Amino acid sequence: VLQLGTVACVIALLAALALNAHANLARLGITSGFGFLSRSTGWDVSFSLTDYSIDDPYWRVLVVGVQNTVFVGLISIVLATLIGSVLGIARTSRNLVLGVLSSIYVECFRSVPMTLQIIFWYTVMTNLPGPRSAYSVADIVFLSNRGLILPAIHIFNPLIFIGVAVGGLVTLALRSRNSPEPGGLWRHAAFGLLTLVLIVATAAIILKGAGAPLVEVPRLRGMGFTGGLHLVPEFSAVVVAIVIAGSAYVAETVRGALLAVPRGQIEAAQALGMNPIAIYLTIKGPLALRLVLPPLSNQFMMIMKATTIGIVIGFSDLFMVVAVSINHSGQTVELILIMMSAFFLINYLISTIVNAINQRIALKDYSWKVAAYD
Amino acid sequence: MRFGAFLRTRLFGSPFNVLVTCLGLVVLGYLFVGAINWAVIESIWRKEDAALCKQVNGACWAVIHARHRLILFGLYPYEEHWRSALACAVAISFIVLSCLPLFWTPLRLVAIWLTGFGTFYALMHGGVLGLLVVPTDNWGGLALTIFVYITVIVIGMPLSVVLALARRSPLPAISWMASIAIDVTRSLPLLTILFTAVVIFPLALPDWLQAGKLYRVITAFAFFFACYQAENLRGGLQGVPQGQEEAAKALGLKRRQIIGLILLPQAFRAALPSTINQMVVTFKDTSVIIIIGFFDVLASGRAAYGSGEWSHAYVEVSLFLAAIYFIFVFTLSRYGAYLERRMRVDKS
Lengths: 374, 348
What we know:
The complex is a heterodimer.
Chain A: H1 2-28, H2 58-92, H3 96-110, H4 114-126, E1 135-137, E2 141-144, E3 147-150, E4 152-153, H5 158-177, H6 185-210, E5 215-216, E6 219-221, E7 224-226, E8 229-231, H7 233-260, H8 263-271, H9 276-306, H10 318-329, H11 332-361, H12 367-373
Antiparallel strand pairs in A: 1-2, 2-3, 3-8, 4-5, 6-7
Chain B: H1 2-10, H2 15-41, H3 62-73, H4 81-97, H5 106-125, H6 141-167, H7 172-187, H8 190-204, H9 213-239, H10 242-250, H11 255-270, H12 272-285, H13 289-292, H14 297-304, H15 314-347
Helix pairs in contact in B: 3-6, 3-14, 4-5, 4-6, 5-6, 6-7, 6-9, 6-14, 7-9, 8-9, 9-11, 9-12, 10-11, 12-15, 14-15
């Protein structure tokens, strides 16, 4: 009875809310439904990977938002994981100076909210000198108040995707022949590297055939830059802030995993006379990797969610695009549903992928793992 | 001898270690000297000397001297700032009090949080004891951040208990609904939840339930907090041995008594470190309300260097804001780590 009562109450509440919302929307003269997606928006975004103009329809701007969120998220996840792993290892090092340095970094950036860090880096970027007196590295990378200008590698050419597909297929074919055994971590890494080389090689060959340059160096012309990859300050600030803060979180996760590796394993290796580097690579590293993946997937999702804070400086991620769309079109309920399903899907994908990796590399006998968590 | 051993193992163990130590010391020394030079030796402290800021290489702390009231109290009426300051002090002191083991009984914790919260609200809002009424629209700065934070916890904590128990309920429909609510909320960014509350509530709620924007945001934030805290509590509940519940049943305790006297106290105890961690994260998360358009401590800090005369001093203001968050977050997380260590010792 209690159960039926609660269910009835919740359903009644939701129905009342829906009815009310419907009535209010009708009063405001907004027609529900997804028809608005094909109307043109009439406003521009601050950063887009693909071409976008103000005449494009709403679904295009939403796609741009998803692209930006995933792009920033993936770049930040990769960089934060790399930097965070190094910091995590440094924090567990026996070297006192190294430990102190990495602790300062981790504690400082972990204890300050992401919002403040994003605002800070954005203010720093917009206060940089103008293009004429930009900081530059060998005149191919420029940093100015227009953002970060890098040499462009034309990977967003549709031909590249064919290259990626071919490279991936070749690698898959190679892999299925030598099916990897547990512990074949190096083989996995070698295959990954091989894929990358294949992709780049294919891309280079195809592009040469198509007559387009693979790498385009930016040049200072007049008051701005031409050519190259133009990362606007909004984008650079979000990535810098999320990578710095995210790497501090990842470092803590990595440190926890390294400390959780059972001491007996290390001592056994030492007793066998293995040198420290070999112990790290063949015992501590692989064991810690299996411990770190589940908490790491939480950090990845945290980083994905943190991209929404980019709106504070006007970075056009999915959240900002949705917020602006709601302002202009009034299709509140539909747009919020789209945004929530997109975030749900992205996070679901992350946890599925990390879980799949985790299962694939799981050790058959995991009794030590239970002991480590106890 | 022991010092020698320390040097050998921790600093100069191998040629590689010697290199790392020396490089690290150079970096540390450079950072330290640079920071002292910038922040102390070459800096300007008083707002009367603000004109000198452009001539020195050091920090211009004069901006803090000149604008600290704006940063801490926002748009709160100038003559009433003492109330805002006192309210913040009250909030901080009851948070500190609730960290002392002396107050770790359910009754005492609830009592100090409710009296503390009541005092805070009375001081900020006024209208009692002849205090001038200040509507929430005029609240700002640190006091607004603290208000959002403690309100979220005061509402979210009981809600999390309800959600955690609902999720463990033997009735499938209830546990299923609680699971969906918790899992969906946890997979979404906080910002989207707050934003949804701001734009959907006015549409979906009848007029007599419409509250101010601040309360809409706080309600959604409290629900978000409760979903995370419910998972922490569920972890704690799972840690309570089955035998405890069975023994209580055998003694003839009612279900309400079993939950209130046996399960929850043990679950809270087991979930204490993760609860403190959640409270730390929540404090940092309050900073996103700037995006919804509230004048919290970040927004007032931004306003402090927003005007032309101080626009060069954004680093100083940012550091000041960072220090406020850092002190709170670092102390509380150290305290959490200490509790975790203590509990581990208790167990073994």
